Amino acid sequence: MAKKYRHAKIKRKHHVLRELEAGLTFLSSLDSIDGIIPGQIRPKAGGQTGFSFQYWTPSGFKLLGRSSAAVQELFVISSHPADALAGFQAAGYLITPIGSEHVQGPS
Which of 35, 53, 57, 84: CA 20 to 30 A from 25? Predict the structure, then answer.
């Protein structure tokens, strides 16, 4: 069984796609981020490299990280998820800018 450990708020049980490292490092540097849990990696063909917002969770939000050959789920834990997502978007890491209805946070 794989050992789990954290480095800069990023839980490292699963492999992290190399193309996503810079974005995850930035995200983990935000004060409003408590942790990042990389999830399953699935193969895919083509497309843009970067991150896309999926939905709010009770503890934060879910992103999809895309590389040239795969997509990875990323669960972000945050006490202020709307602030974290807005900061991530402002830094230009999201592939498609999200609308104000998403940045306002979970209802």
Answer: 57
pLDDT tens string 5-57: 555 556 555 577 888 989 999 999 999 999 998 888 899 887 788 999 999 99
Residue 81 has pLDDT above 90, yes or no: yes
DSSP 30-95: STTEEEEEEEEEEE--S---EEEEEEEETTEEEEEEE-SSEEEEEEEEESSHHHHHHHHHHTT-BS
End-to-end CA distance of the chain: 38
Tokens standing for 12? 């490292």
Q: Which domain holds residue 22?
A: 9-96
* pTM recorded for the entire structure: 0.79
Are 11 and 33 a contacting pair, CB within 8 Å?
no
Q: Domain for residue 74, yes or no? A: yes
